[in-house]
Amino acid sequence: MSESMAAQPLLDVRDLRVSFRTRSGTVDAVDGISFTVGRGEVLGIVGESGSGKSVSMLSVLGLIDNPNCVVEGEVIFQGEDLLKLDDKELRRIRGKEIAMVFQDPMTALTPVYTAGWHISEQIRAHEKVSKKAAHARAIQLLDAVGIPNSTDRVNSYPHEFSGGMRQRVVIAMALSCNPSLLIADEPTTALDVTIQAQILELLRDLQSEFGSSIVLITHDMGVVSQMSDRVLVMYGGRLAEAGPRRALMRDPLHPYTWGLMGSIPPTDGTRVERLAAIPGAPINPSDPDRDRCLFSSRCGFASDACRPQPGLVEHVHGHLDACVLPYDQRPALRLEALTTVMTESGASA
Amino acid sequence: MWRFAGKRAIAALLVLFAISVLVFLIFFATPGVDPAARIAGRNASQETLAQVRQSFGLDQPIWVQYGVMMRHLFIDRDLTSFVNRGAEVIPQVQQAIPVTLSLVIGAAVIWVILALVMGVLATAYRGTAIDPIIVVLGVIGVSLPVYWLGEVVNLVTQSRLHDTIFAWVPSLGYVSLSEGFGPWALHLLFPWLTLAVLYAGIYARVLRSEMVGAMNEDYIRMARAKGIGEWRVLLRHALRTSLIVVVSLFGLDFGALIGGAALLTEVVFGLQGIGKLTYDSLQNFDLPVILACVLYAAFFVVLANFIVDLLYAWLDPRVRHV
């Protein structure tokens, strides 16, 4: 029994759908995605803006404050379906079992309260401790996230911290109740590049120290490659590709992933004249023509085979993608995709 | 915080001095305005004018006149009226102050509480029928002119229904607090409500729009993600940050009302307050009384703003270091 519990993933999302009713019809922001997060695992979710990566994680905690939003599917967390819980029961999970870190630390803290107040509020929301004890814990937590002079800084207001320090405060707050899952929604996007690396390192250290699982939402392939054990690539509210980080980074299968990887400037070898870009614009989620590969409108290899919507297929152990291109030809096609971009840029230069 | 308060206090004193000079100049040194001619009356002879000038000290240089006026007002406290010679100004103002203060402070307590309740409820139930109902009630309150509403209230409570439901309503006028809290509050109850109706609606609307805006902020989503209850999110996070705007609005309105803007309410309910005093003194151009009233009003506007500045700094830590 205990073995089967251990084998069970911490978070099991099955066929999650998030749709918004609008005047022009229903828009599927998240269109039936399934994934799991194991205990102690770092899962990276990559995709461009509007691919549904943030919405899917917000819906898991019932944090979408929009009466026109419908969330369907199952989100099993420690044996409970979170989507079936009412707000009061969800509050027991929020902050205590699943904590979130948001993109912009500048606006994530209520400006009129001190760092210590914010952390104490979260501790006291879930545990019966005195104000004094919560304050002492806040100081320890600020220490743990590397804020110097934490006994003084605990009484500082958000505007008295720099962006990176503020994100550390937010992370300290998120970790204050020892959550088993931390959802970090673009935690470094609003920060300087040098600070980004520090925050990622901090997250990694804390993850090994506290043992939390992390879902890391980002549009930055570099962040994913540094941090995660497994990677999901999302496009248009669907999974394009999923797999272990190493396999996915070395042998990406989906043409969309090729595009994402191609847009990273290489740090070694010759300087490329022009970075590969994915042509076109991200899919409009209200586009009614959905029974197809949504990427086909921007894909150089699109054909009639791209409709109806291709399902996710597991090719190698744990490495899935949703593309109809023959598996054994992918490396050659990927090379072709790269060279096409090169010659196109050469022609236009 | 104390440094901040000290700085603001010095600034407030300077503002008061500037206002006293400005008001004095407006009434005594505006070209074409000759206080002596007003006092002496129409078609006065040159001799009478000269005599008036001499007896009221209006033949002295302007800064001497200012100094004399201020000495009479603040040090000797024996400034007398130009119209009723011998009638001292300060006792008149001192008599009017408690009336206006009682009226405005009581009304302010009512309208602030009403506005907080209405604003928070409208925010909490936005998207349901309660929200527009509260907003419309607020608009109706703002749209009712005080003199009309006051007269209707008087008509109902003093005349039409005075023998039945409103038999407990005392006659119009002010009863000092020294005669007991009950009579004082009872005499002021309807003036309070009338004045409060006007402001509660505006304040509720401002608070609601501020709070609805705050509810879309990231820190509200963060607060929800922390697992705290929705009412706590509403009160400790959204309301707390929205109060800053309401407080600055309150400072302006409160200062103006104390300074005499409650005139209409005072007249309708027969209260001899500062507004009424200023109005009467303007009617017969009684310069010392006007000056005393304006300076008194300025004092309270400045004081109210000073308190608002302190409240501001207390509410918003970002202000403290400015």
Describe the structure.
The complex is a heterodimer of chains A (349) and B (322). Chain A is α/β, with parallel strands linked by helices and 349 residues long. In chain A, 36% of the residues lie in helices and 22% in strands. Chain A has 13 helices and twelve strands. Chain A has helices at 2-7, 53-60, 87-93, 105-108, 115-126, 131-144, 150-153, 163-175, 193-210, 221-227, 245-250, 255-262, 330-348; strands at residues 11-22, 25-37, 42-46, 69-77, 80-81, 98-101, 181-185, 213-218, 230-235, 238-244, 313-316, 319-321. In chain A, the strands form two sheets. An eight-stranded mixed sheet of chain A has the order 6-7-8-3-9-10-12-11, sandwiched between helices. In chain A, strands 2-1-4-5 form a four-stranded antiparallel sheet, with helices on one face. In chain A, helix 5 crosses helix 6 (131-144), helix 5 (115-126) packs parallel to helix 8 and helix 6 crosses helix 8. The longest helix of chain A is centred in the last third of the chain and has 19 residues, at 330-348. Chain B is an all-alpha fold and 322 residues long. Chain B has two domains: 2-89, no CATH class; 97-316, MetI-like (MetI-like fold), CATH 1.10.3720. Chain B is built from 13 helices and no strands. Chain B has helices at residues 2-28, 35-40, 46-56, 62-75, 89-124, 130-143, 146-160, 181-215, 218-225, 230-261, 263-268, 274-283, 287-315. Chain B is globular. The relative contact order of chain B is 0.14. Chain A binds chain B through residues 61, 63, 65, 67, 87, 91-96, 99-100, 102, 104, 107-112, 121-122, 125-126, 157, 159, 170, 173, and chain B through 127, 215, 217-219, 221-230, 236-237, 240-241, 315-318.
Give the largest interface pair and sizes: A-B, 29 and 23 residues
Going by CATH, the homologous superfamily of the largest domain in chain B would be: MetI-like
Please describe the biggest sheet of chain A, giving its number of strands, its sense, and whether it closes into a barrel.
Answer: 8 strands, mixed
β-strand percent of chain A reads: 15-25%
Listing every helix as H and every strand as E from the N terminus to the C terminus, the arrangement of chain B reads HHHHHHHHHHHHH
Q: Could you say what the CATH topology of the largest domain in chain B is called?
A: MetI-like fold
Sheet bearing the most strands of chain B, described?
none
